[in-house]
Amino acid sequence: MNQKDIISQTITFVQNTLVNAEGGHDWFHIERVYKNSLLIAKTETVNTFIVSLGALLHDIADSKFYNGDETIGPKKAREFLFKLNVDSIVIEHVVNIIENISFKGGNEPQKFKSPELDVVQDADRLDAIGAIGIARCFNYGGFKNRALYNPDIKPNLNMTKAEYKNSTAPTINHFYEKLLLLKDKMNTKTGKKIAKQRHHFMLDFLNQFYAEWKGIK
User: Fold this and answer.
1) What is the DSSP letter of 110?
2) 3-state class of 61 per DSSP?
3) Exposed/middle/buried for 58, CB within 10 Å: 0-12, 13-18, 19+?
4) Per-residue model confidence as pLDDT tens digits over 150-208
5) b/e 78-102 (16+ beta carbons within 10 angstroms → b)
6) Looking at residue 153, what DSSP letter applies?
7) What DSSP state is assigned to residue 112?
């Protein structure tokens, strides 16, 4: 099977697997990350086949929806790619991308590095900021029945991985605990450029939010 057919079958597999997924982690999220990964890859020296598979499979079983189990996603991806007779070196690289892409509170050391991971990670983080990032943030907050904002509950900027995963803080806190930190964690030149604009959009949103909260506007 050629690479084009493998990508096509992977797209179908992801679409079918995520048909009932939460709105911020559904096929459309995957599609945006996939497209941004290919955009970023144009200015990087990477294997675009690995980038494509990593982007398409990075959230095939997000641990947030599996009681925090981080092994299910890599396992599903490995089994699927094995059935398509994908080269074992490619499979392991894709699995490493899935295992190391997430933010995890921002304080966890990354155990694997590659230019392909840098590209997919930037694309995934871009989808967490800007207008779509704001929409996804509040969608997930609603999904978890979290308060929009509570002035008495301050953001925790030094969370452990476990604290981050189990947080029930208001949605606005997530901007300070993750979203506003991502601009300075981008890996690629293209990622950094896009993130800068999206970061400023979030700052404008927060200023408007607080003004409305206080009844100023």
Assistant:
1) P
2) coil
3) buried
4) 999 999 888 787 788 778 899 999 999 999 999 999 999 999 999 999 999 999 999 99
5) bebbeeeebeeebbebbbbbbbbbb
6) S
7) -
